[in-house]
Amino acid sequence: MTLVTDPTAPRIALVGATGLVGNTLIQLIEERGFRYRDVHLVASARSVGRELTVDGRPYPVQNLEGFDFSQVDLAFFSAGASVSAKYAPHAVAQGALVIDNTSHFRMDPDSPLVVPQVNAHELDRRPVSGVIANPNCSTIPLVRLLQPVEARWGIRQAVVSTYQAASGRGHSGVAELREATAASLADPADPGPAEEFTPSLSFNVVPFIDRLLESGFTFEEQKMLQESRKILGLPHLDVTTTCVRVPVVNSHSEAAWIECHNPVDRAELVALLAALPEVTVHDQDTPGAFPTPRTVADRPDHVHVGRVRVAEHNPRGFWLWLVADNIRIGAALNAIQIAEALLERGTL
Ligand SMILES: NC(=O)c1ccc[n+]([C@@H]2O[C@H](COP(=O)([O-])OP(=O)(O)OC[C@H]3O[C@@H](n4cnc5c(N)ncnc54)[C@H](OP(=O)(O)O)[C@@H]3O)[C@@H](O)[C@H]2O)c1
């Protein structure tokens, strides 16, 4: 049981508790024995009347509208950027520290953007804004690998293609992929529904995530550049990305070409990556070994790396294939690890 009377344990609120990220936060609180003194499960008016359990105890889902944040020390927000924009400042004004899973505060200079394995030092002080931002789901695993590469060889440029799962659009994204796939199996000419993903994701890949910017890049692609720079403290880091939605239920994959300033030794690179915390390099038995969204499910709290290839014609550059659970590593787990790091430091 992780509900404790210890006065140093935080009183927490999970805003978006009924969503995919919110459900996974509850699971992680239970799995990791995260200690809390009280917990409030919060969502929209649609969910009032529902009950969810945490550590075996039932809790009613409360309406965010009118929720009193003075009852909590720490609020996790996972209910969309517009909800965070409206309600996170209110939670902070009522005394809560916010860990925000949405994009809203990520580039705010007063809100640190944290991946604990990379820049936990940003948690030494309570942020001016009262908000700690959780990065984008594809950015988190990438920067965990880029940081040691930058320190050892210096990065000239990273070119990344993502292969992002339907769960990146929450419960409704997963439901639509299943429904559209069933429709196309019944009738190959029927693409099924295409509201969350346009065109339909059934038997398809869609090179478009989030909204289009004037530059021709999507907001999802811009996030990877801007957020990587902020987290790594490298304002001139050159990262360029194509973000693609694929008909996979869960876990995002990325193919990354990383060109360094200095020649890279493959054995040293593999050893460097394998020594990172919570990273599995699939290279032990055969250098061609690779992880996939299906095969990483038995170790969902690790970033999985394979297909490590230093280019024969250009030994300064190498390719990586990485797979990481976007709901856990890309959202809920990173958020819980931020909270754990705050508690370790006594920053709450
Ligand atoms: N899925 C991912 O891979 C991922 C990764 C990183 C970050 N995120 C971010 O995390 C957030 C949640 O994602 P998700 O995948 O969990 O989505 P989801 O499954 O669609 O869940 C959305 C949650 O937000 C709540 N919500 C929506 N509008 C609300 C409102 N006006 N007031 C209060 N609650 C409201 C919903 O409550 P009801 O059930 O009452 O509607 C639900 O609990 C999004 O901002 C997303 O961008 C997601």
From TrEMBL:
It comes from the Bacteria. It comes from Streptantibioticus cattleyicolor (strain ATCC 35852 / DSM 46488 / JCM 4925 / NBRC 14057 / NRRL 8057). Transmembrane segments: none annotated. One of its GO terms (molecular function) is NAD binding. Homodimer. Catalyzes the NADPH-dependent formation of L-aspartate-semialdehyde (L-ASA) by the reductive dephosphorylation of L-aspartyl-4-phosphate. Belongs to the aspartate-semialdehyde dehydrogenase family. Substrate binds at Q164, R245. It catalyses: L-aspartate 4-semialdehyde + phosphate + NADP(+) = 4-phospho-L-aspartate + NADPH + H(+). GO terms for biological process: 'de novo' L-methionine biosynthetic process; diaminopimelate biosynthetic process; isoleucine biosynthetic process; lysine biosynthetic process via diaminopimelate; threonine biosynthetic process. NADP(+) binds at T18, G19, L20, V21, R46, S47, S167, G168, P188, N326. Phosphate binds at R106. InterPro entries: Asp_semialdehyde_DH (IPR012080), Asp_semialdehyde_DH_beta (IPR005986), NAD(P)-bd_dom_sf (IPR036291), Semialdehyde_DH_NAD-bd (IPR000534), Semialdhyde_DH_dimer_dom (IPR012280). NCBIfam families: asd_B (TIGR01296), PRK14874.1 (NF011456). Its EC number is 1.2.1.11. The active site is at C137, H252. Keywords: Amino-acid biosynthesis, Diaminopimelate biosynthesis, Lysine biosynthesis, Methionine biosynthesis, NADP, Oxidoreductase, Plasmid, Threonine biosynthesis. Pathway: Amino-acid biosynthesis; L-threonine biosynthesis; L-threonine from L-aspartate: step 2/5; Amino-acid biosynthesis; L-lysine biosynthesis via DAP pathway; (S)-tetrahydrodipicolinate from L-aspartate: step 2/4; Amino-acid biosynthesis; L-methionine biosynthesis via de novo pathway; L-homoserine from L-aspartate: step 2/3. Residues 11-126 form the Semialdehyde dehydrogenase NAD-binding domain. The gene is asd. This is Aspartate-semialdehyde dehydrogenase.
